[in-house]
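ENTRY TYPE: paired fold submission
RECORD: A
CONTENT: sequence, then structure tokens
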Amino acid sequence: MRVSPFDTHQRVMSTFLAALFIYNTTSVAEVILRTQKSAHQRLVGNIRLFASALATILLLVTLSLIVSCIISVLWTCLFVKLAYESCQDLCQLLSQTTDDFTLTRGQHVYKVQTCTQSKKKKSLKSHMYPFPW
């Protein structure tokens, strides 16, 4: 009698399918970002590696618990390295975004101040010379 892994390891297989979906989605996103030469490509690539590692470990859990534990230790080392790189990339991305936002906002504030100052000058000129002749 054959038993399906979906019957014996329902949670593991559900998590595996979620990891597989994330892997496929990030693979497509990585290709798109590579063609656009985006700075986010490395971050998406790291997410893809996380998902592939999780999917591999989950499949090994259904086959052998001991082998999956050994592989988990190896994947944990890779995970720590990738997590460190991803945090650096994410911090750099957030820093760049806030700098761009601050620069854009600063230019907007400068334009608003310039407009209000010119309006004040016009109103002061009209108050200085109440008679038009």
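RECORD: B
CONTENT: sequence, then structure tokens
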Amino acid sequence: MTLRGSLPVTIAAAVLGVALLAVARATSETSPPAPEPTPFSPRRPPRDPLPLMPGPLASEPARLPFEPVRWRQSRSLGLPWAGRLEAGVQLPREGRTFFTWDPVLRRSPSRAWRQVGSDRLVRTVLRVLGQFAHAHPHAPRIGIGDLSRPAGGDFGIRYGRPGHVSHQNGLDVDLYYPRLDRRERPPRRVAQIDRRLAQELVDRFVRAGASHVFVGPGTGLTGPPRIVQPLAHHDNHLHVRLR
């Protein structure tokens, strides 16, 4: 009696188990698979990000700002070839429109003690170069050579060849002609000079009130004869002098 009574129950349980197994398989086939963990998923902690350089874009290194000019009122005493300078203004090592060049060491930037002029000279140079760059946004920066020493005075050969007879009272500055290949260094040959841009540079300094602009005899640069004058050893730079 006991075996006969339990047989139907056993059969019913087996049938129910088969039915539940079929339902479970159907559900697993129709449900979407569990998503794989992403690098930022809680299942996989993210790595520490690399430090980013500060700047306009995280992928670009920061660019230090150009040095500010510390203006003060200067006094140019004596003559360009027999004078001195009081309270000279230091030209920065470089700027948006110019770079500096040491003609003795032949490198950029120049040494600071070779880059001091009167406040009027520094203002004139920066203004002219700013206007030039605005008119020619794709032109190379202009190279600036020697101005005067911090207190002016002798700037001859003992300060490095070739030396200067003038550049003594903060009113003289050498500027290198722009090159056709846009390299920021003095031209070694007249053929490397962008004569169109160089002539415009001469013209702009004439209009700015230069008393003299000395140019190389081989450059073909011209201007008012009393102001623009050819001078030996100036085929790679022009020499501007203010009154």
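NOTES ON RECORD B: The chain has three helices and eleven strands. Residues 75-242 form a domain with the Muramoyl-pentapeptide Carboxypeptidase; domain 2 fold (CATH 3.30.1380.10).
STATUS: closed
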